[in-house]
Amino acid sequence: MFKFNIVNNDYEITKAPVLNLKEKLLEKGHIIDEKNPEYVFIIGGDGTFLKAVRLYQEKLDLVNFVPFKFGGIGFYTNKNDLKQIDMIIDKLEKNDLFNLTYQLLEVENGPTTHYVVNEIRILNEKKPLYVKVFINDEYLETFHGTGLVVSTSTGSTGYIKSAGGSVVLPKNSGLYQIQELVPVSTNRFRTLNSPIILNDSYYVKLEFETEQEVLICDTHVTEVHGTILNIKVSNKKIKVLSHKDPKSMSEINILREIFIIDKKEVE
């Protein structure tokens, strides 16, 4: 017997599989506990996965996530198949699922610590930001422009890819990257304007000229408290359970399926 909760997307079509999963778990004697679940079942796409992680920010050491893809892009949620729900529940009860982990970024924002799966974005679309960028306390540059994005390796196929960042294949390798967003570039002011890839021996400090800039941690929108953000690879990791052997899941194939169309397929 275990405690569980279900986090799902808001689509009408999702209601039936959510109800089916809930009924199966209750019939087996498991208990719904929204505050302190041992297992969080996720039905949806990657946005739903990010929402679930956000909900349990303070309990990441205690929670195991069991995602099912039922929506859009599913880098995180393509680990289990709803058509095999009975088998997956049975394996879960026998502690016979594969254990996966995902790296997190840890962001110190005044008195608050955010744990980030994909990326953080610091934005000001009304006027250009001035941000001093330090790496391991060594001054790099003063960025002047719309914003900055800092991404995990697993988040490298998300927002930062669209912003010109690199796709980082090694996961849980301690790698993360910083990318500038719409920098001012003139004969009088110029920054690096290139992705910087770091590992977990590096930490980043961002020092802002003004307070209350917009800070987006995955899907959560907040403000920068004060004028300094400290960013590093966290010691915490997300724990995910899958019935699929991770050795059988090709990251190259996932990239091809989601992003790549060969010439012969277009003609």
From TrEMBL:
<dbReference type="InterPro" id="IPR017437">
    <property type="entry name" value="ATP-NAD_kinase_PpnK-typ_C"/>
</dbReference>
<dbReference type="InterPro" id="IPR016064">
    <property type="entry name" value="NAD/diacylglycerol_kinase_sf"/>
</dbReference>
<dbReference type="GO" id="GO:0019674">
    <property type="term" value="P:NAD+ metabolic process"/>
</dbReference>
<dbReference type="GO" id="GO:0006741">
    <property type="term" value="P:NADP+ biosynthetic process"/>
</dbReference>
<dbReference type="GO" id="GO:0003951">
    <property type="term" value="F:NAD+ kinase activity"/>
</dbReference>
<keyword id="KW-0808">Transferase</keyword>
<keyword id="KW-0418">Kinase</keyword>
<protein>
    <submittedName>
        <fullName>Inorganic polyphosphate/ATP-NAD kinase</fullName>
    </submittedName>
</protein>
<dbReference type="Pfam" id="PF20143">
    <property type="entry name" value="NAD_kinase_C"/>
</dbReference>
<dbReference type="InterPro" id="IPR017438">
    <property type="entry name" value="ATP-NAD_kinase_N"/>
</dbReference>
